[in-house]
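To: structure subgroup
Subject: Chain for Friday's discussion

All,

I'm putting the inputs and outputs inline so they're searchable in the archive.
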Amino acid sequence: MNGEFVMLRREDLNLIIRDAASRAASEVAKMIKPEHPELWSAEQIANYLQVSTYTIQNEWSHEKHFPKPLLLGGGLKPRKRWKSDEIIEWSGNQKKPT
């Protein structure tokens, strides 16, 4: 560039900033991602996502792209637990209202 100024449109600059922020967030997430994620109950997921436990247990957990639970314990009713990092990633991939 040899000391030359480059004019950018505001839209282009915003795209560059968003891309840089996304890349930085991705790198930070890699650094702080726990080796062994917490296991969350439907109630903990509901609290995190600010929805009802009913929504988690009876609606979202049956959707194709919702993370699959681990089944803990034996018997007729094993306890369902989800990996927290999978829930957080899933929630980040959901469409935001415009």
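Points worth raising on Friday:
The mean pLDDT is 86.
The chain has two domains: 8-36, 38-98.

D.
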